[in-house]
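Practice problem: predict the structure.
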Amino acid sequence: MSEPIRILCVEDHPVFREGLSTIIGSQPDLLLVAYAGNAVEAMAEFRRHRPDITLMDLRLPGSNGTDALIAIRGEFPRARIIMLTSSDGDGEIQRAMRAGSSAYLLKSMPKDELLAVIRSVHTGKRHVPPEIAARLAEHLGDNDLTTRELEVLRLIERRFKLSGLTERKDLKDFDWNYNPKNPRREILELANLKFIDAREDALFIGSPGVGKSHIAKALALLAVQRGYTVFYREAHILVEDINQARELGELRKYRATIKAADLVVIDDLFLRKLPPHAGDELADVIMSRYEKASTLITSNREIDDWAKLLGDAVIVTPLLDRLMHHGHLLKFVGKSWRLKESAERIARERQTA
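Answer:
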C-alpha cells in the first residue's frame, strides 16, 4: 500500500477546520499532519512536516494566505498549495496565482470536488474552477493561464454567447439589505445548482424592480460557468422568436434548441403584453421540458392572474401543474431598486447643478 498524501491545513476558522479534518480523516489515502492558524504558524509547520499538500485559507488573521504561500514557496519551490476562498470575486486570487498556487477552491465546493482536487494536485496538476477562471481572465493575460485554463475560458465565453444572456449579473453584487424580506436562503440554495441536476423548475414572483431578473440572470451565469447549457430569453422575445422560426420553417430546430438546454430562463413574463396564442407557445416549452430539464420563470403577476393574461384557462392549468410539480416558488417583496437609483441620480444632479 502506498504512503498517504500528507496534508497541512492552514485555516483559522474552527468550524471549517473541523469539517476539513472530518473529510480528510474519512479517506484512507489522506493524512492530516498538522494545523496552522496564521501565516507564521503555516511557515513553521511546513518546515516541520514538509507536507505533500497544503490547504491554505486566502484570508488569515494578521497577514493573508498569499503571503504565507510566497514565504513557503520561497524556501520550498516545489510546494503544492491549494488556496481556499469564500468568494470567486476575491482580488487576492490574482496575486496568489502569480505566486504559484496549484489550485483554487471555493469553500462552498462539494466534498467530492475537494478530494478530487487534492489527489489531482498531488500528481502535479493544477485546478481552477470555471467561475474563478472567468474572473481571473478579466485581469490576467494569456501567459498567466495554462492551456487547459484557456480552453475552459473559451468554452465559458462560447456558452455565454449562445445562452442569450446580454449582461453578467452576480449574486455578490445583489443588495440584500435593500429588500430584506426577499427569500435569501432559498435563493442561495438554488445557487448550488442542484435543482438543475434534479431537473426541477423555479418561479420567481414579485413586483417590478425587486430583484427577480438580477437573481435569475446571476443563476444563469453561474450555470454557464459551471458547464451547463443555458437558454435565456425575455418572455415576449421568446414568443416573437418562436413565431419567426415558424415563418422561416425552422420551428422544429428552434424548439430542439430550447428542449436541449439544461436551464431555460424565461424572464419578465407579462411585463409586456403577449400576442394571441402565446399561452400555447409557453405551454409547449414547459411541457416539453417537464421532468427532463429545468425551467426558471420570472413574473410580476400573481399566478391567479395568468389565465386572464394568457386568455386561456385551459392552457394555464396544465402549464402551472407541470411547472410547480417539482418547482420552487419564490416570492420577492419590497421596493424597486430602479426607483431608488433614479432618486439618487436626480439628487446628485441637483447637487452639481
